[in-house]
Amino acid sequence: MSGATFLGMPSFPGAAKDALADTQLRRNLAHATATIRGKRTDAVGELDDWQELREAGRAIKERTLRHLDRYLLQLEERVTAAGGRVHWARDAEEASRIVVDLVRSTGERELVKVKSMATQEIGLNEALAEAGIAAYETDLAELIVQLGEDLPSHLLVPAIHRNRAEIREIFLRAMGEHGAAAPDGLGDAPAELAEAARRHLREKFLRAKVAVSGANFLVADTGTAVVVESEGNGRMCLTLPETLISVAGIEKVVPTWQDLEVFLQLLPRSSTGERMNPYTSTWTGTGTGTGTGTGTGTETGSGAGADGGEGPRAFHLVLLDGGRSDTLADPVGRQALNCIRCSACLNVCPVYERVGGHAYGSVYPGPIGAILSPQLRGGATESDRSLPYASTLCGACYEVCPVKINIPDVLVHLRARMVDGGRRRPVPKPERLAMAAASWVLAEPSRLAAAQRAGALAGRLLPGRRGRGASRLPGPLSAWTDARDAPVPAEESFRAWWRRTRR
C-alpha cells in the first residue's frame, strides 16, 4: 500500500494552476479550513496570557537550538539509561535503512504506524515496501490517504482535500484488499466512517509485533518521548507491539518537562482548537528501564512500566538530521526549526486555501513548508526554488504561529538567496536580463524619457479590452497579461506634463 512520493512533482506555479481548476478541491478546503480557524479563534480567545505563552514558546525553542548539541547528547544518555537505544541518521536514506534493518531483525514482515511527518519526509513506507515489509497507517486521515493511494495535503488533516462521499468510496473500494472490508451499506456519516476504520484497524493492532511512530517532543532531561493525538490509535501503537521504533527530527528536543508544559498549551489550541489533547502519550525507555505512560480520553494506556509488565520490550529512537544542521547555520532561516507542526499557518493562508497541499510538492505544505522544505532539501530542484514565492506575504501566518516564526521574513530571505544563486548561473534567467535592462534605462534621464515615449506609443498600438489595458503583450510578456490586464500607458508622462506646465 505504498503511494507515490512528492519527488519529481512540478514547481509550484504549474501545480497551483492545475489545483485552481479543481472546484471540488477548493470547496473541500474552504469548508475545512474555515471550520478549524473558527475553533482555534474561540480556544485562543479564552486565554488572557496567549501572547505571553507564544513568547515563552519562541524563547524556549530559540534557547534549545542555540545549545542543541548539548541537549541531544543529554537525551541520548537518558534514553540509553532507560533501556532504549539511540540511532543517528544523517539523511533520509540512512534513516530508512536503520528502520528497515531494525524491523528485519525482529523477523516480522508487517508493522503499524502512528502518524509521523518525519517518516513521510524520509519516504519510509516506500523503503519498507521495497524490503517486503507492509506498513499500515493507523491515523484515520493517513489511512484514508493510504487506501486511496494518495498523498497527504495537510500537516494535521492529511486527507483534508477529501469530502465524506469520497472517503466512503475509498473505504468501499480498498478496505477489503488490505484487511477487514467496509460493512455493506456504509454511509458517509462521520461516525459510520470512523467505525469502519476502527474495525479495519483492530485486527492489525492485535496482530502487530512492531510499531513505528514519530514524536512531537523529546524531553532531554528524562529521555522521554511524547506523542499527542486525537483518536487513540497512537496509544494502541505505542503500547501493544513488542518493538517500538520512533523517528524524530533533532529539532524536536525540549530541555525539561517544565518547557513541555508550555507547548502542551500552545499546540492543541493552535492545531485542533481544543484546550488539551485528547491523548497525550509519554514513554521513557522500555519495560526494563523506567517508563511512564499518561493520557486522557476514553481509551487509556500505559507506556513501558517500571515493573517490566507493560509496553514494548525494545525501544529504538532514530534521530534525523536531514538538512537540519545546515538550516541551523542560517541565522534567519533557522526559525523554521521552531515549528511544532500545528498547521495554524496553513489554515489562515489564502494561497493554501485555494490550491491545497499537493501543489507544494512536499511533505510540508503551506507557509511553513515554503520555508522549511527548500532548506531541508537544499533548494536543489526547481520545485524547491519556487516555494519561497508561493506566498502573498500577507503576514497572516506570522500572526497565528504559536511560536512566533516570522514566516514572511524568512520567505523574503530565501527569495534573496535564490536571486543570489541565479547570479552565478552561466546563462542568466530572463528576469535577470529584464532587471539589467531596467537598471540601464533608469540610470540615465534621457533613456527613461525615451522609454516612456515608447510605452505611450505601445499603448496606442495595442488597444485594451474596454479601454482597461493592452489585451495581450507580445512575446514572453504575454505570460503576464494572460493572468491580468495590462494598464494603458498614460498619453502624457509626468515628465512631459511637468515640462509643459512648469516651463
Give a description of the structure.
The protein is of the alpha/beta class. It folds into 3 domains: 128 residues, Fumarate Reductase Iron-sulfur Protein, Chain B, domain 2; 250 residues, Rossmann fold (3-Layer(aba) Sandwich), CATH 3.40.50; 57 residues, no CATH class. Helices cover 49% and strands 10% of the residues. The chain is built from 23 helices and 12 strands. The strands form 3 sheets. It has a 6-stranded parallel sheet with strand order 1-10-7-4-2-3, with helices on both faces. The longest helix is centred in the first third of the chain and has 23 residues. The radius of gyration is 26 Å and the shape is globular. It starts with 11 loop residues before the first helix and ends with a helix.
How are the SSEs placed, and which strands pair?
Layout: H1 12-20, H2 23-45, H3 50-66, H4 68-81, E1 85-89, H5 92-106, E2 110-113, H6 117-121, H7 124-130, E3 134-137, H8 140-147, H9 164-174, H10 190-207, E4 210-213, E5 217-219, E6 224-229, H11 233-239, E7 243-249, E8 253-254, H12 257-271, E9 279-284, E10 314-320, H13 324-328, H14 344-348, H15 350-355, H16 366-376, H17 382-386, H18 396-400, H19 407-422, H20 430-442, H21 445-461, E11 469-470, H22 478-481, E12 486-487, H23 494-502
Parallel strand pairs: 1-10, 2-3, 2-4, 4-7, 5-8, 7-10
Antiparallel strand pairs: 5-6, 6-9, 11-12
Helix pairs in contact: 3-12, 9-10, 16-19
